[in-house]
């Protein structure tokens, strides 16, 4: 596949993923990470983290009155040590091994979202989820499912806005640490910039319909796509 076709596929995935995340609160990384893993694994996790900055800022701002600030504080506190573990994993792994880690992370995240018991957003559980998210998002760009589990029984606006705020803080921390460690490259930055129009289209579309769509069915579709993609990434080539 040539570079133009690769860009078109990743841009389409970015637009769809932005729509899904804006509508239900998770899904962006679960859709984009496997696609990038197949086509341009060298872009992960940097391009993915950069793209999620404006997306989560937009979602958090849109429903800012519903943010659970106490939960955001505990999750962010727990995330910091997890971020350094994620950096260590990223540094020691080869590209092929990282691809398989992404696949495994996606599969585990989907299974957790489907079968894990209910989490209640208290201080201890918030810090534990923050630590897990710091590891997985810094290493692979995927961090949404643990946060979604934590808030899955709260109203939609609280889930979407609080997860977006946690992501925004965590992504800034992860990118700073990754940059200091020399893991950020120009090509990753350029790809993120080129994908911004697709991100904007998906985000705006989610604003129009996020009150009317069947969030349960959309979530099921995202999890099915992510599960299949994750399994395929686990297969060695």
Compile the SSE list and pairings:
Blueprint: H1 3-24, H2 28-39, H3 46-62, H4 69-92, H5 95-115, H6 123-140, H7 144-151, H8 156-180, H9 186-194, H10 196-209, H11 215-234
Helix pairs in contact: 1-2, 1-10, 2-5, 2-11, 3-8, 3-9, 3-10, 4-6, 4-8, 5-7, 5-11, 6-7, 7-8
Pfam families: TauE
Organism: Modicisalibacter muralis
Transmembrane segments: 7-31, 43-61, 73-95, 101-119, 162-182, 188-206, 218-235
How would you describe the overall organization of this protein?
InterPro entries: TM_pro_TauE-like, TSUP. One of its GO terms (cellular component) is plasma membrane. The protein is mainly α and 237 residues long. The protein has eleven helices and no strands. It is globular, with a radius of gyration of 16 Å.
């Amino acid at each position: 596949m040539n570079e133009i076709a690769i860009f078109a596929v990743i841009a389409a995935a970015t637009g769809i993923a932005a729509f899904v995340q804006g509508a239900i609160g998770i899904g962006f990384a679960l859709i984009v990470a496997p696609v990038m893993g197949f086509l341009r694994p060298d872009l992960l996790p940097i391009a993915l983290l950069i793209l999620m900055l404006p997306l989560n800022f937009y979602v958090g701002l849109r429903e800012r009155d519903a943010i659970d600030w106490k939960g955001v504080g505990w999750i962010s506190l727990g995330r910091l040590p997890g971020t350094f573990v994620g950096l260590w994993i990223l540094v020691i792994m080869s590209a092929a091994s990282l691809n398989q880690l992404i696949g495994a992370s996606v599969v585990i995240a989907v299974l957790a979202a489907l079968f894990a018991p209910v989490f209640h957003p208290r201080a201890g559980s918030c810090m534990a989820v923050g630590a897990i998210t710091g590891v997985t998002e810094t290493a692979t760009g995927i961090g949404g499912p643990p946060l979604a589990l934590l808030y899955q029984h709260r109203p939609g606006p609280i889930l979407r806005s609080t997860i977006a705020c946690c992501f925004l803080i965590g992504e800034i921390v992860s990118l700073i640490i990754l940059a200091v460690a020399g893991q950020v490259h120009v090509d990753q930055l350029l790809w993120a910039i080129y994908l911004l129009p697709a991100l904007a289209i998906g985000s705006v579309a989610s604003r129009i319909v996020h009150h009317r769509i069947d969030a349960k069915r959309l979530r099921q579709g995202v999890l099915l796509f992510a599960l299949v993609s994750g399994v395929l990434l686990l297969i060695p080539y």
